[in-house]
Amino acid sequence: MSTGSNELGFGLMLAAALALAGCEGPLNSPYPAADAERNILYSSFSERPKHLDPARAYSSDESLIIGQIYEPLLQYHYLKRPYVLEPATAEALPEIRYLDASGKVLPAGAPDSAIAYSEYDFRLKPGIRFQPHPAFARGAGGEYLYHHLRPEQFAGIRTLADFRETGTRELTAEDYAYQIKRLLHPALHSPIAELMKEHIVGFKALGDALERDYFAAPKGRFFDLRPYAVEGVQVPDSHRLVIRLYGKYPQFRFWLAMTFFAPMPWEADAFYAQPGLIEKNITLDWYPVGSGPYLLAENNPNRRMVLERNPYFHEDRYPAEGDPEDGPNGLLADAGRLLPLVDRVVMNLEKETIPYWNKFLQGYYDYSGIASDNFDQAVQFGSSGSPELTPEMLEKGIRLETSVAASDYYLGFNLRDPVVGGLDEAHCKLRQALSIAMDYEEFISIFMNGRGVAAQGVLPPGIYGYQEGEKGINPYVYDWVDGVPRRKSIETARRLLAEAGYPNGVDAATGKPLVLYLDLSTHGADDKPLLAWYRKQLEKLGVQLVFRATDYNQFQQKMAAGNAQIYQWGWNADYPDPENFFFLLYGRNAKVPNGGENASNYVSEEFDRLFERMRNLDDGPERLRLIEALQEKVRHDAPWIFGLHPKSFSLHHAWYGNLKPHLMANNKLKYMKIDARQRAARRAAWNRPVWWPLLAGFALLLAAVVPAYRHYRQRQRAAAR
């Protein structure tokens, strides 16, 4: 081998490197180069969804998928705040009638006591069709091709995509009625079935009938719900649906915007009931069938899930109005455009936060949350205390969106406990003193990177009746100072504690220190700083705090029996109405003895009277007055130490448009847009391969090898001579 051949080898390596550098798209891209400028949105998921059947799904990760596929009658307006309902598949909001016990329509303004029934009357938009699906496929004679598959036909079927033929049909009111009956299907165990039995007329009787007949029916056959009638669900014609409820329950309109009440074609139920498909996990819980903007084209929870545009999606347009700031913020630029704005949504499995975060910074994910490990890299707090992006994020054009969740996280008192319970003034002052001492501003700063808002009462921001400013503070815990709420001094808390009978944390009657117990499910070593923080807060008052940890099941049993003293708890809103928060303190919902969601076992005749008057009123001055009275009552009685409302921080790239945080809507993806060209350009710029270390390494290698090789050849020639 000559020196020239070495130089030739080096030249070839250099040419190969340059050729690679010239390849289309970044070399580290996890996506096909052909997709670089396609209208695709990229996101991720960390855990496999458990249910995709709308009768069963209830978690946020499940709703992220099925909310794009299924269409309830109503939806939330994407831009307006407070949250406003609008028609989805319905032509308009329902006509609501109130009836007396004889079924006669009551005049407007009739007292609630006269209302025996409520009727919600819907008319559907015509021409809406379901996505293409083999359940609808028919032969030349009109017969369903795949409803009665023979054993040999299952041999070549592994996924839904293996069926050659698909079909569609128009959405009808019967599809909504069928889904409502599915909520009671004995094999599905819908999480809202028992609640709906309290409200939908005849629903309990239907549940009893289905329970009886399902278990008596032959196994392995389609259990057809069509022959069953429910008194409170009527279909006068193919595009009209009437639902009758007991009494007045205005919160029902919010349930009608959830996928529990999405339409279900009986054909899909029949198709998926075949044992041969169930054995292959081809079920409705895995392959949804809807009329929404997207269909689930790929479901591989060990790798990725893919949504694609539904080719039969009906006309739906981006909103033309919103809040006053939406226009200047660019959120009305797409007003009137046909939805969805993105053709495809690719969701990749990412179990670890660091790889996910790095891919986001490289431009391979369009938006991201912020894990604690990455928070300081992404966010800093300005002189005013408000969150700001770091220079590194700003340089990349990344944007920050924040929103306060419709959630409560709090420490609750068991009002049945002899030490912290009771509604006399002394016990109220004890709980008020503890509320002041528990510094949740410090908690939010230390444990949540500032991602929270200290709670002033039961209602979080965004819920009707929540009040900003001085009028909205808890006056038993805060003062209004220089335009902001400021927690009362620890001296004020000590005074209240003394008035409650515990001067300096000592029981005046017995001379013994006041010892309180925080009951919680088992915590690990990582939670020691949090528990130490809780103890430190009460030490400021001279009060001792003891932790009683059990496993989760034992903790739940302790709560159900009313044996806890102080406990940690939280609540995420099902719908944006004050009733969905105040009911947590309604006496009839007490855990003991009723097994309800009132974990504090708070029972106040005054509160219950106000709540019963407030819950079914329409929003307006009278309801607002009652909400204010309810807030005042619970602030004084302090059944909770009102902790915080979590604040979510999300990041998105400059090419990701129309993002406005919405805590209630599940069908948000149809409003999103992607500037794919800008994304491709920035990915290329951010992921340019750095070749000089490789080339320098080759050069150093050659510099070391060539002299040695020359010396070796010289010795060979000398030996030959």
TrEMBL record:
**GO BP, sorted A to Z:** peptide transport
- Transmembrane segments in this chain: where? 690-709
Which cellular component appears as one GO term in the record?
A: outer membrane-bounded periplasmic space
Q: Could you tell me the keywords of this UniProt record?
A: Membrane, Signal, Transmembrane, Transmembrane helix, Transport
Family annotation (Pfam families): SBP_bac_5
Which residues, by range, are in coiled-coil regions? none
- Cite the InterPro entries for this sequence: Peptide/Ni-bd, SBP_5, SBP_5_dom
Indicate where this protein resides in the cell.
Answer: Cell envelope
What protein am I looking at?
A: Peptide ABC transporter substrate-binding protein
Name its species: Methylococcus geothermalis
Q: What is the lineage of its organism?
A: Bacteria, Pseudomonadati, Pseudomonadota, Gammaproteobacteria, Methylococcales
